[in-house]
Amino acid sequence: MDDALFLHRLQFAFTITFHYLFPQLTMGLGLLIVIMKWIALRTDNECYNNSTRFWAKIFAINFAVGVVTGIPMEFQFGTNWARFSTFAGGVIGQTLAMESVFAFFLESSFLGLFLFSEKRLGPKMHFFAALMVFIGSWLSGYFIIATNAWMQHPVAYEVGANGNVALTSFWGLLLNPWIAWQYTHNMIGSVVTASFVVAAAGAFYLLAHKNEEYGKVFVRVGVIAGVIASILVAFPTGDGQVKNIVVHQPVTFAAMEGLFETREGAPLVLIGQPDMEKRRLDNPLHVPKMLSFLTYLHWGAEVKGLDAFPENTWPTNIPLLYYSYHVMVGLGTIFIAIMLGGIYLLWKKKLFTARPFLWVLMLAFPFPYIANTAGWWTAELGRQPWLVYGLMRTVDGTSTMVSAGNTLFTLLGFAGMYFVIGMLFLFLVVKTINNGPEAALKH
Amino acid sequence: MEILWFCVVAFMLAMYTILDGFDLGAGILHLFVAKNDEERRTVLNAIGPVWDGNEVWILAVGGTLYFAFPLLYASSFSGFYLPLMMVLWLLMLRGLGIELRHHVNHPMWRTFWDGTFALGSTLLAIFLGAALGNVVRGVPLNEDGFFFEPLWTTFMVQPEAGILDWFTVLMGLVGLCTLTVHGANYLAMKTESAVQERSRRIASFAVWGVVLFSVATLVAASSIRPEIWNNYSEHSWGYIFPLVGMLGLIGMVYFNRTHQDTKAFLSSSTFIGGMLASTAFGLFPNVLPASTDPKYSLTVYNTAAPSYGLSVGIVWWAIGIVIALGYFTYLFYSFRGKVKLHAEGY
What we know:
Shape of chain A: globular
Oligomer: heterodimer
Low-confidence stretches of chain B: none
Low-confidence stretches of chain A: none
Structural class of chain B: mainly alpha
Largest interface: A-B, 73 and 66 residues
Largest sheet of chain B: 2 strands, antiparallel
Strand order of the largest sheet of chain B: 1-2
Strand content of chain A: 5-15%
Distance between the termini of chain B: 45 Å
Strand order of the largest sheet of chain A: 1-2
Mean pLDDT of chain B: 90
Number of strands of chain A: 8
Order of helices and strands of chain B: HHHHHHHHHHHEEHH
Strand content of chain B: under 5%
Mean pLDDT of chain A: 93
Helix content of chain A: over 70%
Number of helices of chain B: 13
């Protein structure tokens, strides 16, 4: 049984991690395309119009992969987590069904129009189609976050006679207080990814001395959007999300911070390795009293460590949780530094010729993907050992009828399939960027 | 309320089969009706703007099952574990075939994705038919309402059957033939000259496959699961569904001969809708009959979510689906008429 549990978890973790590489760009890029299209519409600047077409092409490849890797996610709730679905379907089935009915239909219909009928629609309707695609993708994100928020912080439910949960308030589910920070944090995180990707493509053009006119547009749009998003993702949204965790999942917070012992004036750990045998942090580098201050705005405040909680409520993989959280926060800080540098150079009118900085910008684009992934791992590992916080443990949620051998078979199948899809994706995106925006106009 | 949701799910499943059915059908026919690159691009452009939206219906079916009938969702998805995973992989390959083909202008690249698209679509059509076959035949449910089926055992219809036995394979062939005709009707409606003529010709003989396999299935189903006739003998108004299906079938033959492609397409849509409704009517109130012991069968009553969720769901569902049908109408309207190849598109 342990074996099967591990494989069910690994398959879900693998498929969702891979899947989320694509929607995070879709959601962020959707916003940037709307902005570029808006500028094109207002200024009649053909360069912005072509930029929109170019990014729409990358958006389409990205969207296609997002769709095909997304379908398994909804299926896997039933295939691999049947007991969880029986238990929670009456509540989270609502938000998942709403995602299809309200978001996916909108997104897929208008994407068809956006990609295929610019000439037929005319500029204003084409802008409208882009706007609808953007709204569809952000609505989709909302329903997914609402689903996850219920698993992190269950509300608006009652446990029925058969032991399964029943919904008691529709608006309670959709307006779960957990959603606000998690949603804004997540969506702005996707804008960070898109900003870095757009800026990186621009930096590449400027460094390679080709399509320089477009390179300037991309770098400018990327840096301006990037500085705003990088700051907002940390404060107030990231900070707000941590405070949710402090209040509702205090043991998770202690594990994220690597705080084994409860103490007043707790330090903020920057680097160190959790040693679970000795219950301590090896090679720590920390800022004294900072954690107490950041959490409670008071230098001497007491922060609860892991020792304050029974061990069977501790997250099951504390080192990985700790690393995920610290990787996310560390990278987030670096993003702010890079984008502030970019905005300073833009203001000084040196950005397009500052080659060392353009190199940094070009090479930085994978890191927001890592940060977003690490952020989700923090949320999901932090919820353990619970599948629905306080209500159902992960070990009780699997499909008992599906054997470990069958799960391993499909896990290997997904691994092979996604490896091929990943290579195709990279090949096509690199090719599109290499061909440049002018080639995107011709077919 | 459970009955209403049963109808909703049946409606959405019919919408899915009709809509995604024609682009699956186009995939089955892809290599046969379109011989050169220009013709293949025509086929892809005929479904290009709409296939993704069509496929969303299966997600909507899954989501609706999930919240309206959680136990049914959990039981069937985990029980059909292997075939569902394969369906997912096929859906992926097929979607990539449509979307990636036009990105590289090299004959080998294009041939490869044409093959992927065609093979994926063909297998999916068979799987969809076989899936329905499993529901009609029943699955080995235990007392908790769960089961697990291997892909096949002995290919005989027995309590410990696999996903594939002779009956479900037969229904798979019904699925394949029906979607072939349906796709051919769609392509005949959306294209001109060579592709159109080949599509009409294929539809004209594949429709006899539909007739043959449907009759065989009907006879087989009556002997395997005679109780599907109970609802009909108790409520004779239910015969309207098979009657509608029959009219659709007649229309498919007639309008194909007279080259009225749009009417032929509407006929095959009617046939699919009528046949699915007939099956649903015969199964009710079962949603997944047990091949082990009838008392373990999953019904709309023992799998439904609590009533508050169902009542609140019907409100947003109705609003959402009206809006969605609006998008679809607009989308199909703006891509109306014959496909023209130009710079925008595949």
